[in-house]
Amino acid sequence: MTAIDLRSDTVTQPTEAMRRAMAAAEVGDDVFKEDPTVRRLEEKAARVTGKQEALFVCSGTMANLVCQLCHCGRGDEMILGDQSHVFYYEQGGSAAVGGIHHRTVPNLPDGTMDLEAVAAAVRPDDVHFPRSRLVIVENTHNRCSGMPVDAGYMGRLKELAEKNGLAVHVDGARIFNAAAALETTVEELVRDADSVSFCLSKGLGAPAGSLVCADSDFIAEARRVRKVLGGGMRQTGVLAAAGLVALEEMKDRLAEDHANARRLAEALAKAEGLSVDLERVRTNMVYVNIDPRRGPASRFVELLAKRGVLVFATGAEQIRAVTHHPLTGGDMDRAARAFAAAAGDM
Ligand SMILES: *Cc1c(COP(=O)(O)O)cnc(C)c1O
């Protein structure tokens, strides 16, 4: 039997419809803005996020980096969560490439940052200090259990940002999961953001690519930055074609992934040696604590793999399971049995 791979939603395979669309895609040189399929994808992304324009880039990391470089100059400061993907998992790219200073504020368990803490992190106008330019919100919040961040919070953050001359960027790698979980639209969730990035290659199932969405001036600048980062690709319509299918056919099924995560979590909550906070299972991620008296999470991961289920350890006592297409409720039941057995093996 093939393994149930719950390491990440990035392991999704392109669907048959994507492969057909890729094979048939009309393409051109996208650096000359002559790829009609890329342009269609960018127009669709702009529409769905409610922004003027969009730009297709290689990855979520590149999308976030392009946005940071557009919002901030060398020596400027940005405020972001201490558990954020940009801070944790992107090599501090904007410091390395753009000389941008990172100022972290603690993430709250719901993935937000306390607004008073954000306000307190804004630098006064003083020759000693860098200038605060940007605040970044992650939605859904990966290291905070995949929690969705609602539009009400964004509105309050925007008010604070405007008062303090900050731009707002949303790292929306999984913003479609957030919209599904909150039963709202992506447009609503990013109305108060100056820029947003999202991934096609996670739960949406496309093989590669992310989009940056913002107003037209910002996207013109983002296009220049993408080029200097080496992201000016040519006949990328073959990838964009899969992205179009992702936006047309895959976003409305994300609620299934969320239901599967819940089904798995509810089963695991009953297993001995494992614990799950069910209230924190809101999207497609299940964080599971392993009783440390039984052994480290890394050992649990190995034992679980022997039983045909793959996950990542995210801490000494914690693992993460991510649901995605085309896993089914039956797969969740099978995975839950393997979890219970692996806990027993420890
Ligand atoms: C995956 C992810 C990214 C980066 O995407 P890549 O395409 O892997 O570079 C950015 N932010 C968050 C929250 C992510 O989960």
Summarize this structure as a short list of keywords or feature phrases.
346 residues, alpha/beta, seven-stranded mixed sheet, globular, binds pyridoxal-5'-phosphate
Level of helix content? 40-55%
Radius of gyration equals 20 Å
Contiguous low-pLDDT stretches (5 residues minimum) are none
Number of strands: 13
Mean pLDDT: 98
Structural class: alpha/beta
- What portion of the residues fall into strands of 2 or more residues? 15-25%
Major pleated sheet: 7 strands, mixed
- Could you give the order of the helices and strands? EHHEHEHHEHEHEHHEEHHHEEHEEEH
Record the strand order, biggest sheet. 2-8-7-6-5-3-4
CA-based shape: globular
How far the N terminus sits from the C terminus, by CA atoms, comes to 23 Å
Unique ligands: pyridoxal-5'-phosphate
Describe the fold and architecture:
It is a single chain. The chain is α/β, with parallel strands linked by helices and 346 residues long. The chain is built from 14 helices and 13 strands. The strands form three sheets. Strands 2-8-7-6-5-3-4 form a seven-stranded mixed beta sheet, with helices on both faces. It has a four-stranded antiparallel beta sheet with strand order 9-10-13-12. A two-stranded parallel ribbon has the order 1-11. Strand 12 and strand 13 form a beta hairpin. Helix 12 packs parallel to helix 14. Pyridoxal-5'-phosphate binds next to helix 3.
Q: TL;DR of this structure?
A:
Helix content is 43%, strand content 17%. It is built from 14 helices and 13 strands.
Write the layout of secondary structure elements.
Blueprint: E1 4-5, H1 16-24, H2 36-49, E2 53-57, H3 60-71, E3 77-81, H4 85-89, H5 93-98, E4 101-105, H6 115-121, E5 132-138, H7 151-163, E6 167-171, H8 175-182, H9 186-190, E7 195-199, E8 210-214, H10 216-228, H11 237-250, H12 254-269, E9 274-275, E10 285-290, H13 297-306, E11 309-310, E12 312-315, E13 318-322, H14 329-345
Parallel strand pairs: 1-11, 3-4, 3-5, 5-6, 6-7
Antiparallel strand pairs: 2-8, 7-8, 9-10, 10-13, 12-13
Helix pairs in contact: 1-11, 2-11, 3-10, 12-14
The structure holds pyridoxal-5'-phosphate.
Pyridoxal-5'-phosphate binds at residues 59-61, 64, 85, 138, 142, 171, 173, 199, 201, 210.
